Amino acid sequence: MQLGLVGLGKMGFNMRERLRGGNHEVIGFDPRPEVTDVPSLAALADALTAPRVVWVMVPSGDITHQTIVELAEHLQPGDLVIDGGNSRYTEDGPHAKLLGDKGISFIDAGVSGGIWGLTEGYGLMVGGSDEDVARAMPIFDTLRPAGDVADGFVHAGPVGAGHFTKMVHNGVEYALMTAYAEGYELLAAEPLVKDPAAVYQAWSNGTVVRSWLQELLAKALKEDPELANITGYTDDSGEGRWTVEEAIRLRVPVPGIAASLFARFLSRQDDSPTMKAVAALRNQFGGHAVKRISESG
After folding, report:
1. S-S: 2 plus which of 25, 39, 117, 138, CB 3.0-4.6 Å?
2. Could you give the percent of the chain with pLDDT greater than 70?
3. Which of 173, 182, 219, 246 is catalytic?
């Protein structure tokens, strides 16, 4: 099957390689001349045979929106656009309408797998009509992990369902990562445990907490047992925040996900104003000692 792929970053580049390995013809566009196959989106549209299928794999937000707006000018009725980035699901409806007004179909696809997707396959969560999803299934089948068709792929519902599902997926990921990290810190704090890295490696088989994330932490600890080469600063790309916001809207309690999001915020503070205020309060009402900054700084 022929596919146009916009965005050849860490994931998009590997997706192109996996699809080409599955005997698909992939024509990619990226602003970086060293990786692109064509010089522009207009050239990409010209290089594809109608009816076209174009997968957009660029950062969420304005870049995705501008890419879809420009594609709408170059594509034709009967073509199909797939947004495979981490767009917020509320943006999918407007994008589907913008394209639909020109007779162009739209699918939103949540994609999980990161840099490992090239060899392991990608988890795919898609939203769109039955007809549009069926049309793109050869691409989805090659990208997803090998095995049962229900493994690694779900047609979650109409437009918007794919990105909503991926948002919740990433919120769950936040909580899982925090739980594994807290377990590591607790193990490392106990002198009885001589090798926390070996514990995490042992958990990779036969335990109920084994998972790919757990295996990745075991790998990281094997490479750097005390994690001495990195800082604790942890960014968030948006999906965790959106998950908590949607949970509030739907009145669904997600304390674990919410706590993991706030833990990321805390990681960016060299000296927490909240905890400084707590220390000051303890000193005021109980005379508890506080550690003061010396005059020398």
Report:
1. 25
2. 96
3. 173
